[in-house]
Specification:
It is a single chain. The chain is an alpha/beta fold and about 300 residues long. It folds into 2 domains: about 180 residues, Formyl transferase, N-terminal domain (Rossmann fold, 3-Layer(aba) Sandwich), CATH 3.40.50.170; about 90 residues, Methionyl-tRNA Fmet Formyltransferase, Chain A, domain 2 (Roll), CATH 3.10.25. It has 8 helices and 15 strands. It has a 7-stranded mixed beta sheet. Strands 10, 11, 12, 13, 14 and 15 form a 6-stranded antiparallel beta sheet that branches. A two-stranded antiparallel sheet has the order 3-4. The longest helix has 24 residues.
């Protein structure tokens, strides 16, 4: 039970949590007393320090303080948060392990996770959903425990997929779903009218942090797998091939028909995949260049037709 609004701290960094932060700032059962996000990082060609999407959203809703600890588990970081005397933590796309002292608040710590837990636990659930060709996705609201996305489920919403989602488009859709899920469950949770249900272990999968090298398109794989990778690995780590003309980033593609050439060959339709079908390249970006249609890229480099990708 609760007497009046509950002092709440929001933890998040990526864009997935922006709408939920807005909803928290307006929720009648919540007093938003602080936001914790990642510190500014160098970005762009100039390497200028850039704040997170959540940092910018917190400025717009005029929440203070905005804390940017390098390590959340550091004693001084924990002390800063506890000085705000929160009764609840809400987390969405933060990226660091939450220490036990923040999990043991009177109303606990609630995490919005963009998958149907226990499927796709871990740091990259949206790319994993697309890579796996899942027919549905969703958002899970869970009470956090000491594990990685293993806490009991407070609420869950399922979302059907069309099969043409990219990571940015699916994240944008789930961002709204997450905010609605949070808003609908907060009041009942704070009043003790909801019981968190333990996750089943059956069907559990774990995702991993992505590295730049994960974006390399392996021409030994079938065209459908490669097409899903192009959609899943936007904007990071991107999907690319090494050509005789240098690295080429692939921003959009589709599965084409059978080719006569061997896999790994570049042609007028794109790249021949391991199952003998074309991965039709639609939009590409050469190293140091701009986005362009594959046809425009070929006009400037006609000799690449018939060449094989490197590596």
């Amino acid at each position: 039970m609760t007497d009046g609004p509950v002092r709440t701290v929001f933890l998040g960094s990526g864009g997935f949590g922006r709408e939920s932060l807005w909803r928290l700032s307006e929720h009648p059962d919540i007093e938003l007393v602080g936001v914790v996000t990642a510190p500014p990082r160098p970005a762009g060609r100039g390497g200028r320090p850039t704040t997170t999407p959540i940092h910018e959203a917190a400025r717009h809703v005029d929440v203070r303080p905005i804390l940017t600890p390098e390590r959340l588990r550091a004693p001084d970081s924990i002390a800063q948060i506890l000085r705000l005397t929160p009764g609840l933590i809400v987390l969405a796309d933060y990226g660091q392990i939450v220490p036990p002292s923040l999990l043991e608040l009177p109303h606990g710590a609630l995490n919005l996770h963009p998958s149907l837990l226990p499927r796709h636990r871990g740091p990259t659930p949206i790319p994993a959903t697309i890579l796996a060709d899942d027919r549905e996705s969703g958002v899970t609201l869970m009470r956090m425990d000491a594990g990685v996305d293993t806490g009991p489920v407070v609420g869950q919403v399922r979302v059907p997929l069309t099969g043409d989602e990219t990571t940015p488009s699916l994240e944008e859709a789930l961002e709204i779903v997450a905010s609605d899920l949070l808003a609908a469950h907060l009041g009942p949770w704070l009043r003790g009218k909801l019981t968190a249900v333990p996750q089943p272990e059956e069907g559990a999968t774990i995702t991993k942090l992505l590295r730049r090298e994960d974006g390399r398109l392996d021409a030994g794989r079938d065209a459908e797998t490669l097409e899903r990778q192009v959609r899943a690995y936007q904007p990071w780590p991107g999907s690319f091939v090494e050509t005789p003309e240098g690295r080429l980033v692939v921003w959009s593609s589709e599965v084409g028909g059978l080719a006569r050439e061997s896999h790994g060959t570049l042609g007028a339709d794109g790249l021949v995949a391991g199952d003998g079908r074309w991965l039709r390249l639609i939009e590409v970006q050469p190293a140091g260049g701009r986005h362009m249609p594959w046809s425009a890229y070929l006009r400037g480099r006609p000799s690449i037709v018939g060449a094989s990708i490197v590596g």
